[in-house]
Amino acid sequence: MRTPLKIVLVGMPGSGKSTFGKALARQLNFAFVDLDEAIENEESKSIREIFEIEGEGRFRELETDYLEKVLDGVEGFVLSTGGGTPCFNDNMDLINEKSVSVYLEVTNEELLKRLLKDQAGKRPMFAGMDEGEMILKIKNLLAQREAYYLKAKIKLSGDDISTELLISELMSFFR
Ligand SMILES: Nc1ncnc2c1ncn2[C@@H]1O[C@H](COP(=O)(O)OP(=O)(O)OP(=O)(O)O)[C@@H](O)[C@H]1O
Ligand SMILES: O=C(O)C1=C[C@@H](O)[C@@H](O)[C@H](O)C1
Ligand SMILES: [Mg+2]
């Protein structure tokens, strides 16, 4: 039996992992998993509730548990991680051991635009912040996280990354 292809998307909050992942899975006819959504469904709580009631530490434990479960699946898939997933526990090493990881690198200006557009309160990391505070938070998060994201096997940069570009990068990767 051929080894199933497991594609894991990583990147900053708002970089488009969920949106892009869904489109990529549809195009490849692969199963799609969004780690944040999987946690919310299984725990019957929103990410915001888990942060507020049980704290970020508990969320990071759950995140690693669900990540391991998905990565150990026998079928191929596209997995969109949460923005912080690669940066806690040994998650990024685990991702690289078991999948082809892809970093979606988007400019801070575009991240801000997208996060401002999204429903307030959807992302606990940015809860209650004004635009100036969000810019600082994006810069700080990227400074802490970029080294983890850069461990990905493939990096795609730009504010309008297409699924066709990733498919062509995947073909080069396996060539
Ligand atoms: N290529 C794109 N161009 C413009 N807007 C986009 C693009 N991709 C995603 N968006 C928009 O940006 C916002 C964030 O996208 P998305 O939720 O997919 O990001 P994410 O990386 O999954 O974030 P998180 O880490 O918080 O889960 C959404 O409103 C989405 O519609
Ligand atoms: O950047 C982060 O740390 C997070 C991003 C989201 O995808 C969620 O996983 C959660 O809100 C934490
Ligand atoms: Mg997402």
UniProtKB/TrEMBL annotation:
Main location: cytoplasm
Cofactor binding, note field: Binds 1 Mg(2+) ion per subunit.
Cofactor(s) listed in the protein's UniProt record: Mg(2+)
Amino acids binding ATP: 14-19, 123
Gene Ontology MF terms in the entry: ATP binding; magnesium ion binding; shikimate kinase activity
Catalytic activity reported: shikimate + ATP = 3-phosphoshikimate + ADP + H(+)
Sequence intervals crossing the membrane: none
Residue positions binding Mg(2+): 18
Amino acids binding substrate: 36, 60, 83, 145
Coiled coil: none
UniProt cross-references to InterPro entries, sorted A to Z: Shikimate/glucono_kinase (IPR031322), Shikimate_kinase/TSH1 (IPR000623)
UniProt-listed HAMAP family: Shikimate_kinase
Role of this protein: Catalyzes the specific phosphorylation of the 3-hydroxyl group of shikimic acid using ATP as a cosubstrate.
Name of the protein in question: Shikimate kinase
Native source species: Arthrospiribacter ruber
Name of the encoding gene: aroK
